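Example record used in the benchmark description.
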Amino acid sequence: MNISDFDYFLPENLIAQDPLEKRDESRLMIMNRTTGRLEHKHFRDIIDYLNPSDVLILNDSKVIPARIYGKRHGSGGVIETLLLKDIGNDEWEVLVKPGRKALVGQVIDYGTSLTGTVIKITRDGNRIIKFSYDGVSIYPILDEIGNMPIPPYIKKKLVDKNRYQTVYAKNIGSAAAPTAGLHFTRELLSALKEKGVIVKYVTLHVGLGTFRPVKVKDITQHIMHSEHYYVPDDTAKEIKKAKQEGRRVVCVGTTSMRTVESAFDEHADLISSSADTSIFIYPGYKFKIADALITNFHLPQSTLLMLVSAFSSRDMIMNAYKTAIEKQYRFFSFGDAMFLN
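Model output (structure tokens):
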């Protein structure tokens, strides 16, 4: 399967630069993943397409204000650091710019009480930095000095940090938002529960590996970076019961889908679990848990576009994207949504 099979042209003006004032007023494309039939609604209308006793799976990971700026000891040169993954003992895997100036042993001063020392360069060029600071946790410092790691295709400055968080974000650890969940409001979630939709949570801490470009022509040779996930016991039990009873499991976002599919695959029976996953879902994958998916419109040639193509078909998805462009849908992180059912 060739990377060019997942390419398309997107006019730059369709890349959403701002979140809408009201989260659930984004547009929603409904697609029957068997027939390819399309409907055009608004996100608040999702309530009409979810059934009582459906299990709605949300990723409650919370984005870290992970982009920080420091100065190199010795020269004072500015270093941009993007925290990717907490590996314990105050050591983090990070991206740095400029990389050539961040060699092993380099000390970086981030202001306040925070300093970092580069202790390792990984095989793919990332750095491992050990941080030191006053206090019991680095997170209050990041809340003070950090910037949200919004993607590079968003050129506008994000005024309100909370708009790059879901309203149900809880467990700190992501380097990027699980963006399909950005459309939900607390009021919409309450209305869904009143209807009888069963809302459950998983956690997958989103790393940049999910969004990195595929650099091989044969997509089957692409290797995903690992991300940590957690499936609570009550979520696992509810999913298992739903599958036994023939009720739908509806995943909100590719991260929720990758989590439940990973948990099943590794244990042969979905149970409460905490592990790392590098699952790569592309056409030909046989889904074990997910019955429907709420997702955004994804970048050309991305692993996320491959995942949604696997959930329906490449031809149907590419036709849906063609229609979305014709109808001026907004794309990517702050853009509109699809419901594949």
